[in-house]
Amino acid sequence: MTATPVGLEPRLQKLIRQDVQSMHAYAIQDSAGMVKLDAMENPHRLPADLQAKLGRRLGALALNRYPDGRVNDLRKALADYAQMPDGFDIMLGNGSDELISLLAMACDVEGGSILAPLPGFVMYAMSAQLQGLRFVGVPLSPDFELDEAAMLAAIAEHQPSIIYLAYPNNPTANLWDDAVIEKIIDAAPGLVVMDEAYQPFSSKSYIGRIAREPARHRHVLLMRTLSKFGMAGVRIGYMLGNRALIAEIDKLRPPYNISVLNYECALFALEHREAFAAQAADIVAQRGVIVQAVGCMPGVRVWPSDANMVLVRVPDAARTFEGMKARRVLVKNVSKMHPLLANCLRLTVGTADDNRHMLAALEQSL
User: Fold this and answer.
1) Peptide bond preceding 171: is omega within 30 degrees of 0, i.e. cis?
2) Across the chain, how many H-helices and E-strands are there?
3) Which of 1, 23, 189, 222 is 20 to 30 A distant from 276 in Cα terms?
């Protein structure tokens, strides 16, 4: 039973920043008894034989010791998996969220700011606020494409320390035009972070362009996570970039930020990447089923997706969301996140059975 929260005593209020007191904590929806399709998780669990192998491996770890040099084995394995270019290095975070926080900390200079298209991942703006940096949000077009003129104008005016470009974007799930991205990279006075959280499901990665023109991309960082790979509970994010640049940011990383259990799970996953690749292929196929089915529903608009989520616009997002929830299907109501997302829901791609339940609940709730 949870006690009713009471306000802070005045003497404690003075200790905590006013902007923090006015914030809302990141909300996680209660998913008990639901078909859970709200958080872009891989819906597939490890096969039974791999569960047994992993259990034996984790049980043999020396949990009484701090993490050791084995974490460097994970760095090498991830660099190989990502096909890291020569002259680049890799650093690890406790999920991408920690890397985003460390970047804000590293770039907290006088007059510094963070710029990103909106709607986008909420942690970009939150990291700026928590570090005391200005955040500049540049609206996308009504079809969720980069507004080239507005982006370049905002860069020229604000001279941001960091520009975030999600590839594909969350929650819109689309890839942006590479020619526009290249103009932004060339115009950037500071860092550009290509956030490829949904890389396992995407038709493209920016890593090839970085490898072909490393000098042009000395200020570009490529960030990924194993969460969408299929290990959301393991909390491993990683970031590739110019070796000298990574070395400076890595100075801010807390010691032992990757636990023994986490790095061993991640190494195990990379050793069995073919199993996770098969899961990703199934998710991509199921994504096509959802897009086609939703596209046939009257009054509903669906956008193309390169991620493991599908953005749809319905006549009444609040009513449809509650109707689906009443039918034991949990999706994400993003309609209040930004004016461009009016009446939009974000549907995570689940298993074939999950998706059948979700599509039925959506149709019945319209």
Assistant:
1) yes
2) 14, 13
3) 222
Strands (DSSP E) contained in the chain are 35-36, 88-93, 113-118, 134-139, 162-166, 191-195, 220-225, 237-242, 301-302, 309-313, 329-330, 332-333, 344-348
Exposure string for 87-116, b = 16+ CB within 10 A, e = fewer: ebbbbbbbbbbbbbbbbbebbeeeebbbbb
3-state secondary structure of 313: strand
Assigned token pair, 171: 């929650």
Asked whether the whole model's pTM tops 0.85, one would answer yes
Distance between alpha carbon 199 and the CA centroid of its chain, in Å?
10
Other Cβ atoms closer than 10 A to 275: 15
Residues forming beta bridges with residue 93, ordered by sequence position: 237
Angle, alpha carbons 134-138-141 (nearest 5°): 170
CA atoms within 13 A on the CB side of 150: 13
Measured CA to CA, the distance from residue 195 to residue 202 in angstroms comes to 12
Instruction: Give yes or no for residue 2 having a pLDDT over 50.
Output: no
**CATH 3.40.640.10 is the classification of domain 65-271:** yes
Q: What fold is seen in the domain 14-43+274-365? A: Aspartate Aminotransferase, domain 1 (3.90.1150)
Give the residue extent of every domain in the chain.
14-43+274-365, 65-271
